[in-house]
Amino acid sequence: MRVCVIPGDGIGVEVLAVAVRVLQILRPGVELLFAEAGWDTFQRHGVALPATTLAAARAADAILFGAVASPSHPVPGYRSPIVQLRRDLDLYANIRPTQLRRQPPDGAAQYSFVVVRENTEGLYAGRERVEDDGATAIAERVITRHASARISRAACDLARQRATTLGRRGRLTIVHKANVLRVSDGLFRETALRVAAEYPELEVEELLVDVAAMRVAETPTRFDVIVTTNLFGDILSDIACIHGGGLGMAASANLGDAHGLFEPVHGAAPDIVGRGIANPMAALESVAMLLEWRSFTGEAERLRSAMAAVLLVGPRTPDIGGDAGTAAVADAVIERL
Ligand code: NAI
Ligand code: MG
User: Which domains does the chain have, with CATH numbers?
Assistant: First the structure.
C-alpha cells in the first residue's frame, strides 16, 4: 500500500508524526510518499498546493492529511489546499463519525453517529466576488442534482451498512434549510428524499438545520446518519464532536470513487503548536479509518482497541482532562500495539 502523507502546518505536523509511526507498525511494508502543502509551503514557494503534491496524492492508494493554516484575510494567490484537494480529487463525501465519550445511561454499549457532508460545492464552491466598488460581497451557493444525489447515496449506503453491523434499523436524517433557501436546498431536499426512497429498510426523516444543531447538541443519541450540504455539515460536525471529547478526538474521511483522504477534523491549532500537548487521537482514528477503507480491518481493530485502552486508563492530553503530552500518549498506544 502506498500512502501519501501531507502533514501541513502547525500541530498537523505533530500529530501526523505519531500517525505515521503507528501506521508503520501496523503495516510494516507501507510505502510513504511525503508531500507538502499549506501556509508554510505557500510562503516558501508561492503556492499552497504544489503540483507535485497533487500528483503524489493521485498516485497513492490513500492520503493521510494533517492540517493546514489558512489565513482568514484574503491573500492573493492563496487557496485552501484541503478545499482544493477535495475538489481536484473529487472527494465528494466527507464522513465524520462521533463516538460518544460518555455513553448514554440506557446502557447502549457504544453509541456513535455520523455526519455525511457534501464536500465539493454549496457555499464552498469558491464563487465569491465583490460589487459596488467593494461595498457588496456575494458568495454563490451551488447545489447540483448530481452532487446531491451521490452524497445522499453515500449516506444511505453507510446507514444500510451500519444497520447490518449494529443489528438494528438504520435511520437517515436529511438536514437542510429549504424553508428559506427554497431553490437551492429545495433541490437538495427533493433529491435526497428521492434517493432515500430507494432504501425502504431505512427510517428517513428531515430536519431544518437550526433545529438539527440544537438536537445534535442536546440529544445526539437520536441520530444515526445525518446527510447535509457543505457548510451545514462543517458546522454540525464540529458541534457533534463535543460529544466525542472535542476536536482532539474527531477524525474524518474524504471519499470519492477513486481516492480517499483521511484527516483529523481539527486545524493547525496555533494556540498550542510547539508545546507538545496536541492530542494525537484524532489523527490515529484517521489512520484506523484509512486502514478500514483499504480493507485492513484487523489492523484497524487492533489500533482502535489500543486507543480505547489508553483513553480508559491514560495517559491523556489536557484537552480531554489529562496532563500528558503527545509523545507520552503515542508511546502508550504503541506499547499496547
Ligand atoms: P483548530 O481546530 O486549529 O483549533 C481550535 C481549538 O481546538 C484550539 O483551541 C486548539 O488548540 C484546539 N485543538 C484542535 N486540535 C487539537 C488537538 N489535536 N489537541 C488539542 N487541542 C486541539 O481551529 P482554529 O483555531 O479555528 O483554526 C486554526 C487554523 O487551522 C486556521 O488557520 C484554520 O484555517 C485552520 N484549519 C484547518 C483545517 C484543516 O486543515 N482541515 C480545519 C480547521 C481549521
Ligand atoms: Mg470545520
Answer: 1-91+256-337 (3.40.718.10), 92-247 (3.40.718.10)
| Separation between Cα atoms, residue 165 and residue 151, nearest integer Å | 21
CA 148 to centroid of ligand 2, rounded, Å: 20
CA–CA separation, 199 vs 194, rounded Å?
A: 10
Q: Which of 36, 80, 266, 273 is the pocket-test mutation for ligand 1 (most atoms within 8 Å of CB)?
A: 266
Whole-model pTM? 0.95
pLDDT (tens digit per residue) in 53-110: 999 999 999 999 999 998 888 899 898 999 899 989 999 999 999 999 876 555 555 6
Q: Could you give the CA distance from residue 84 to residue 257 in angstroms, rounded to a whole number?
A: 17
CA proximity to 22, closest of 335, 275, 265, 278:
335
pLDDT, tens digit (0-9, with 9 covering 90-100), for 221-266? 999 999 999 999 999 999 999 999 999 999 999 999 999 999 999 9
